[in-house]
């Protein structure tokens, strides 16, 4: 597994909101170590038995937390990320969508400067079924296993994770990198982690039109010893029209599904056109 393990002790920023409450319960039920919540002005509350503090620093000092998952409104997200970084958090999962690009650039650069891993924004989160999840990936599509997943699309993450499970496969770790034009962790950052991970036998990579994240990752895929099975969404998308995510747009012929598929195949990835083909290809390339 990567990014989160048995030593992950997480806080929930925005725990007293509707989404924060709901997903805190889901994460707890999945076995995640949620040790505290943070909502300014709500210190002293409890949510599903989890103590709430006014600041991240208080929560970290009291519970030795090292990870945070954010359920805060977009206008407050940048300040919440800065507070988490300054409070000593090492892994930050930003679920929030519609964060201004300049805010994302600021918080990602600050994270890099301080050596903090940021997942997202606009991500479904991460899950290592053996130890828990940080985010909103439905528990029913997760099962402990040896397939690493990394995806730009939340919905496709759920669909493909479920396709693996019903075909007898489970995940070592599932990572949603987020669908915004700027994210804290990209394909090129996650693939080396899976390559070094002893629990991962193969990687399923889920890309989509727009940007060059998949093409950049191809340079590393060429060096990998583990098989990469790739699926690219948006084959029929017209040029200049945004498809779902802010980052899913083809401009001047760059970022098309066909260009990504070509690059991935040339890098040695096994590219499928249908989701149902993924388990079949995995069976062929890992022999089980």
From TrEMBL:
Annotated EC: 6.2.1.5
Instruction: Locate the residues binding substrate.
Output: 158
- Positions annotated as active site in the UniProt record: 245
Q: Name one GO molecular function term.
A: acetate-CoA ligase (ADP-forming) activity
GO BP terms: namely: tricarboxylic acid cycle
User: Quick one: signal sequence residues?
Assistant: none
SUPFAM superfamilies per the UniProt record, alphabetical: NAD(P)-binding Rossmann-fold domains, Succinyl-CoA synthetase domains
List keywords of the entry alphabetically: Ligase, Nucleotide-binding, Tricarboxylic acid cycle
Q: How does it assemble?
A: Heterotetramer of two alpha and two beta subunits.
Name of the protein this chain belongs to: Succinate--CoA ligase [ADP-forming] subunit alpha
Record organism? Methanothermococcus okinawensis
Kindly list the organism's lineage. Archaea, Methanobacteriati, Methanobacteriota, Methanomada group, Methanococci
